[in-house]
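ok trying again, last paste got cut off:
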Amino acid sequence: MMKFDLDENTKRERLIGRILVCALAIAGILSIYFWYDVSPGVILEARVPGIDGESLSASGQTVQKEIVGKLTRSSGSPADLTGAWPCFRGPDLDNICKEEFKPWPKGSKAATAWAIDVGEGFAGAVILDGRVYLMDYDREQEEDALRCLSLADGEEIWRYSYPMSIKRNHGMSRTVPSVTKDWLIGIGPKCHVTCLDSESGEKKWMIDMVRDFGAEVPPWYAGQCPLIDGNRLILAPGGTALITAVDCETGEIIWETPNPNDWKMTHSSVMPMEFNGVRMYVYCASGGVVGASAEDGRILWEYPDWKISIANVPSPLTVGDGKIFLSGGYKAGSAMLQLKKVEDRIEPQLLFRLEPERFGATQHTPILFNDCIFGVRPDGQFVCLDLDGNEKWASGGAYKFGLGSFILAGSLFYVLNDSGLLSRVEADAGQFRLVDQMQILEGHDSWGPIACASGRMILRDMTRMICLEEAQ
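nice, full thing came through this time. structure:
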């Protein structure tokens, strides 16, 4: 009796299970029918590049079609000061401050006019007419920001910002803008070139070098600094144009240098020079060094034997008489080129090459002063060379400066080490003479280029920017 009841129950459960399965199948069929035939048309498309407002460059990198920025005004006011440090390496592109800067007494601590927090990076400031300009990154808002500050107190006057998603990659912003009385031009981490009215902050135009030239964003983001030459902006995008000249007022392309070898953009910046009455732009690209005519951009000469495998950072240093000093890190060392006129062409010839143990420069371009080359080589020592590549002195193992920045003002070099210790060194070709040292920053990676004008010196580490005052 009990066995019979169990079999009947089992049969009943199996029947109910079959009915439920059939019901679910019918419901599935009906739902598909209503999805395609009855409900309002909903079309699902494959997610392809471009449908979300983005496109791919020639290199396959995703780029936005159009970026909309905004201008935000604040309460700061320009200082009543007229000095200028308008671009990377200063007004004469030599990293020498020629305005009077009164050094504070030996052993005393420099007065700090102001200090501000900045986004992670190594972007240096420029100075013009009582204003300080900085390419920054706002992580909270996920925006690139070209900022205008007061040289008097660091208060923000305005900022022009635009949305840009950037991941932390050992710093974010690392370029120095260029400013004139008419234009402020900056290059963002992902190679967006923005031109603003330097007084009001109003946007004039924007170029996306990835979209417009097929450029590739370098490792650790863009490090190239814009060069304003007269009314022209000189850029080195790589891609379809190794170098290009842009009208600063309109953003229109004036000329483009061909790029038959597909050399890529590096962290190095373009430098102008003249040779035999011909003005040109010299650039250290990924596959070598090139000289392009300032008139029409045509290639005047190439030197493919200068390559740096990981990151080409220092800019070419022109030392006169057609000579160009090249330096790099990552075991590149340094080299001196000599341009020669051969019939109707220019040929670069190698004068000498130095191993990195003798001289190289991982990050900062050396300074030419009194026919000597001063810089920090890869082992961290501050070094003086003559123009034949002979070492005149080195700071020695007791004084090493890592990848810190340096500048010459008056008769003194101001040299930062990685942790914000500032050393003053006499600009003496005879021997290394340390004046004093002082801790001016408490952070790390004090690598941003230094600016100096109007009796003020602006320095930074990874997240903090300070302004020092000259002696009173």
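cool. Residues 1-13, 19-60 have pLDDT under 50 and may be disordered. The first strand starts at residue 54 and ends at 56.
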